[in-house]
From TrEMBL:
Transmembrane segments: 20-41, 165-184
Domain Histidine kinase: start-end pairs: 409-606
Domain of life: Bacteria
Membrane topology: Multi-pass membrane protein
Alphabetic keyword roster: ATP-binding, Cell inner membrane, Cell membrane, Coiled coil, Kinase, Membrane, Nucleotide-binding, Phosphoprotein, Transferase, Transmembrane, Transmembrane helix, Two-component regulatory system
EC number(s) reported in the record: 2.7.13.3
One Gene Ontology term, aspect cellular component: plasma membrane
Enzyme kind, highest EC tier: transferase
Subcellular location: Cell inner membrane
Name of this protein: Sensor protein
Amino acid sequence: MAQTLHDNLTPRHSVVFNTLLAFVVIISVSLLSMLGSLYMADALQGDAAALNQAGSLRMQSYRLAMTARSGDMQQLDRHIAKLEETLVAPALQSALSRHSRTELPARYTLAVEHWKEVMHPLISVRPPRIDDYREEVGSFVDELDALVKSLQEASESRLEVIRGLQVGTLFIIVIIAFLLIYGLHNNLATPLRTLTAIARDIGRGQFNRHIRVDGDTELSLLARTINQMSQELAGLYADMEDKVHAKTLELQHSNSSLQLLFDSARMLYGQPDDPSQIMGHMLAKVQGVLGCGPITLCLNQPSEAGSHTAMTSQDMLPPNYCNLPKCDSCPALQDNGQLPDGRQLLSFSLRSGPTELGSLRVEQRRGHELDSWQKQLLETLADLFAASLSLSHQSRQQASLALMEERAVIARELHDSLAQALSAQKLQLARLRRQMLKDCSSEELGATLEQIEQGLNAAYRQLRELLTTFRIQVNAPGLKPALLATVQEFSQHSGVAIELDYRLDHCPLTPNEEIHCLQIIREALSNVIKHAQASRCNIQLQQDSHGTIDIRIEDDGIGIGEAISPGGHYGLSILHERAASLHGTLAISNRNVRGTRVWLRFPPQYRHIPLVQETTP
């Protein structure tokens, strides 16, 4: 009997085996196609280089004519040698051997013979026969074009073979996939849908259905097992259902309350800018969880009397008893919250410290008090709403303060740099006008104009620095992202290896300090790239034990002769001015081994410390 049952539970036809076999066939065909494509791709290796070499011959032919016209015979000989070297380049020779059965070798032979018999004698004689060469170069370039075209056609013919192989493989795979899908639909999908349906019924507690799957496969075995399991679960489920139902009722209130609080917190803190509308949309859900009467939310403006918004859980509109903005006559503040229709208003204040931001009110029929868990939930929601409103108000205040501080920094930068430079040029123009009225000499006028030009160049340079500073794009606020973007910018366009050692993550610098530090570092990096002839540069930012900010920019270049800006160049002067704006010091000196060191030290504003003078090591 047991042996018979075991035989009945053993499938004779395996759906899994048949499916795996089909996939093995598909993978095998795909692998063979890939190997064939790789073989053909290897045959095309080097054609791109050959095309580049052949195409460069046309440019070299015209370059010979231009070089011969200039009269530089040594340069001409080098270009002739370069062209002949390109004619016999390994890439071209390899392409000729790969495409020996095409017309490519004949085209190549014609081009080489044309060069050796016609073009080379015309250009190699002394003096070169430039006019004859220029008349002949057109036909020579046509032969080179034909050579390039032949090489391109040979490569494309190989690509056509690869394309055909891929199309054939795709066709075979589609046929096998169609057969596989057809078999899976009949032997797997249809029985599986039936099994899924009965499994869904079992999950719903319906154990009276039975399933029959024809054939002798894994799914038929699974169907017989499910039928047996369904009969056994029918008895167990009846006993467990009563216990589960009792436990569910016990946990329902706690679960719904926690879920409501979680959803409320996630929605409010996910959109802190305007939480009032989110609160209004949540009122209906709160009423559904509590199972009470309509809920009203009244919101006050901080530090102002009266409400500015009132909405109910029914229609998001003020309740019928509301007389906004006449809040003094609100029934919630009179007669213990009694309404004319006999209902009573229970209020829960929204407070943030001593400030009352509004209230959460529930309409209940007289004699129907709220349960303790309902009151606790409403009090928690009121605290949550108050915290969200307070955070939104603080966020708006911080945004306004940040905007005002940023505008102040921009105004200060314009006043300290560009405005002063333009004011100086205004005085220079007045001086030039007086000189012109006095008929001064051209030398005096020229000297004044030169000073005006230098001043305008300095002003334009300062303007570019300001634009660069204010346009720096970073993904996060602060000095570190701006420095990372600066290092990436200068590294990509200079070839100098720039390393950044940033240790000021714990220092809250002001926007003004960040701008000055960034501009000093950018100016120092610009000087390194333009004048130092360095290969490496290291930027280090740290804070010493006294709280002083220490910034060093060191390179391994040729060093600096003197740390004074020459006439008409204001880079080093601007560095010292920016250091002075930070109430700090800037030292520029040669390193002991090789290169230059720019050393900036200043006390951060948040510490309010005096700068401790130290000698440059």
